[in-house]
Amino acid sequence: MRRLLLKILRKVSLKALSLEWKLRHDCPHKFVKKTIAPNVEIVMCRICNRRDGWWCPESPNHCCSYTKDFDQCDYCGQPEERK
Length: 83
Prior knowledge:
By secondary structure, the protein is α+β, with helices and mostly antiparallel strands. The protein has one helix and three strands; from the N terminus they run H-E-E-E. The longest helix is centred in the N-terminal third of the chain and has 24 residues. The chain is elongated.
């Protein structure tokens, strides 16, 4: 009986994880600034809680981008590794 219950729980858990992934993947994302510590601001979706990087006041999508120089944001110049 215990083995059967564990098997059922595993199937339910996998289906729940699959559904969670699909909901996050298909999320229309409403990104907002979130302060997680003094002077540490990130971009997070208020619908699915996906963290999308560091907050950037200069970037069009308000998320730091590091395409030109891997050490500093292309828009605001802040380092990728916040200290």
